[in-house]
Structures are given as C-alpha cells and as structure tokens.
C-alpha cells in the first residue's frame, strides 16, 4: 500500500493541473484515474465535464491548500502551466512575469507533497528560462532521481500538425526509455470532417489581402502539414494556424478537425451550444495527445499501455 492507502496494483491516480478541456485525461484514457482536474476557466471546465466524469475544481492552482493536494493522494501530477512568460514571440519576462507566479507556487507544492511522478508541458523557450532552472533544482533537492526532458513535435510522430512543445517527466524512482517513434501516419485528408459545418469559408477579400501570409494546406497533398493552431485562430488571420484550400478559395479548419489533429478520441464532443470562437480558443490551447502519450510512456506503470 502507498502512504495514501491505495494498493500498489490499483490504477495510477492522476491530478490534472491547468487541465483546460482535458487533454491529459484524453491522453491517459484508462491507464490512470484522474482524481481531480483544476483550472480557473469555467468554460474550459464545462467542456471537460461534458466529456469526463472526474471531479473538476474551478480554482487557481496556487490557491489549493497543501492538505487538499495531499488528500487527493495522486501518484502523478500533470501540469500545463501558462506559457506566456516564456514564449519566443512574447517579451519572455520569465521570473519577472506575474503570470509565472502560479508556476513558482506549483514548484513549491511539488517539493512539499512530492508526488511519485511529475509531468508537464510548456512552450519551447521554457527550457532556457530561470523558472526551468528553479524547477530542476527543486526536483533534485526533493529527491526526484530520474528526469526526462524533450522538445517534441507531433510531426515527429507522423501527425500532419506542427506543435513543438517542451515536455518533462520526473520520478522519485525510475523511468523507462521512451518507445520508438512511429513516424508514418495518416495524411491530412483523413482528419477532415466528412461534412464540415457552415461558416468556415474565408471571405474572398480577406483571402486576397492576406494570401501571402496565410498558410494553405491541400487535402489531396499526402505530405501536407498544418501549422500550429493557436488560441487566436478565427480571430487573427495570420500566424494562428493553417487554412484548407477549397475549390472556392479557402476555409478554416473546424474545431472538430483541430481536435482530431491533436489526437483526441472520436468519442470526444464539444457542447453543441459552444460558440465556435470559444471552441477554437479552448481547443487550440490544449495538448497533442500523441506527444503526451509518447512522453508518459516513460512512467513504468503506464509504459506501452497508451
Ligand atoms: C496552456 S492551457 C492548458 C490546456 C490544457 N492542457 C488542455 O488540455 O486544454 C493553460 C490553462 O491554464 C489555465 N490557467 C491559467 N492560469 C491558471 C491558474 N493560476 N490556476 C489554474 N488554472 C490556470 C487556463 O485557464 C488554461 O486552461
């Protein structure tokens, strides 16, 4: 039995911090039991609860009491903290950015509670930040003897979508090697809606004005790769994700198509009354399920079960 009282062969207990719409829950599937999912965004939690029965906690991660964190008795803490302090396109204020405070609080909580495994995702650029340095120093002092870090893009796993991210898995015990990458996958055409919803078409004037800066992918191109979809997709015309070339010009990818490219299961559903602008924002903030599975396979209890 673990200190918290659950048996060694019970499924791993997972705590999802900054859970958003549940990318980690989608990646874990049946290989772990999420004990709680914390996020400050109530709309994201509505979408989460539309798909998963796990308890959601609408709160700031830094406001969760240590006793509560201990009571959840989670073996694995997954965290996708805000990335704005580290983004290469941003000011990269790092430790000085107030939005890094929640990350710093999380690092302190990890050292106090010492869950068996810690895994997290952030943007490229995080690995050279001072917050990263503090995280690694704290993990070492807290007795995490195995730490795996990598930058990984779903295109390296055969998925036609760019989303290069930093990942870390830390264990107080051992980790196992990452599995071999399957680098050949299905072409872009197989990720598309058979009947896309109305309203995705790009206005002809807009297309003419921005065409040079827009990335258009072709469904019949077996090598087509979409650019990273960002939370500005649908609001910002350029550098927020790809468009699909159509006989009439171009259209945006639907939120369901973005979810598919991220690797969410077919059973995952957005609430039917969710406005498309909100859907794009929430979905584009989520995770590459394939990449998360690839890195979580280093946790021995998860291994190749994903
Ligand atoms: C990069 S997104 C992670 C999304 C998530 N991985 C998913 O699958 O949808 C960061 C999330 O952190 C949440 N967030 C930001 N600051 C927070 C804080 N201090 N406490 C709790 N949640 C926070 C945001 O609402 C957002 O959902």
Provide keyphrases for this structure.
single chain, 306 residues, alpha/beta, Rossmann fold, DNA Methylase, Chain A, domain 2, 2 domains, 7-stranded mixed β-sheet, 3-stranded mixed β-sheet, 26% helix, 17% strand, globular, disordered N terminus, binds S-adenosylmethionine
Explain how this protein is built.
This protein is an alpha/beta fold. The chain folds into 2 domains: 189 residues, Rossmann fold; 97 residues, DNA Methylase, subunit A, domain 2 (DNA Methylase, Chain A, domain 2, Alpha-Beta Complex). Helices cover 26% and strands 17% of the residues. Strands 3-2-1-4-5-7-6 form a 7-stranded mixed beta sheet. Strand 4, helix 4 and strand 5 form a beta-alpha-beta unit. Helix 4 runs parallel beside helix 5. The relative contact order is 0.15. Bound molecules: S-adenosylmethionine. The site of S-adenosylmethionine has 21 residues, from strand 2.
């Amino acid at each position: 039995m673990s200190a918290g009282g659950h048996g060694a062969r019970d499924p791993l207990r997972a705590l999802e911090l900054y859970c958003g719409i549940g990318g980690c829950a989608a990646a874990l599937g049946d290989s772990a039991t999420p004990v709680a999912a914390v996020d400050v965004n109530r709309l994201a939690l509505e979408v989460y609860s539309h798909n998963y029965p796990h308890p959601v906690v609408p709160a700031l991660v830094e406001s969760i009491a240590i006793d509560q964190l201990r009571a959840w008795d989670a073996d694995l803490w997954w965290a996708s903290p805000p990335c704005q302090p580290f983004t290469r396109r941003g000011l990269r204020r790092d430790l000085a950015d107030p939005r890094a405070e929640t990350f710093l609080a999380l690092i302190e909580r990890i050292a106090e509670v010492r869950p068996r495994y810690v895994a997290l995702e952030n943007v490229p650029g995080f690995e050279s930040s001072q917050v990263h340095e503090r995280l690694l120093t704290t993990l070492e002092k807290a007795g995490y003897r195995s730490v795996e870090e990598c930058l990984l893009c779903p295109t390296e796993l055969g998925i036609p979508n760019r989303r290069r991210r930093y990942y870390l898995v830390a264990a107080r015990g051992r980790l196992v090697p990452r599995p071999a990458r399957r680098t050949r996958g299905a072409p872009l055409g197989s990720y598309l809606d058979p009947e896309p919803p109305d309203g995705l078409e790009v206005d002809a004037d807009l297309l003419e004005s921005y065409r040079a800066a827009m990335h258009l992918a072709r469904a019949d191109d077996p090598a087509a790769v979409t650019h990273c979809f960002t939370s500005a997709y649908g609001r910002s015309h350029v550098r927020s994700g790809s468009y699909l070339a159509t006989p009439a010009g171009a259209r945006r990818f639907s939120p369901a198509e973005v979810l598919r490219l991220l690797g969410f299961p077919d059973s995952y559903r957005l609430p039917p009354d969710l406005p498309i602008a909100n859907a794009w924002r929430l979905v584009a903030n989520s995770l590459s399920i394939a990449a998360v599975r690839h890195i979580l396979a280093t946790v021995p209890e998860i291994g190749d079960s994903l």
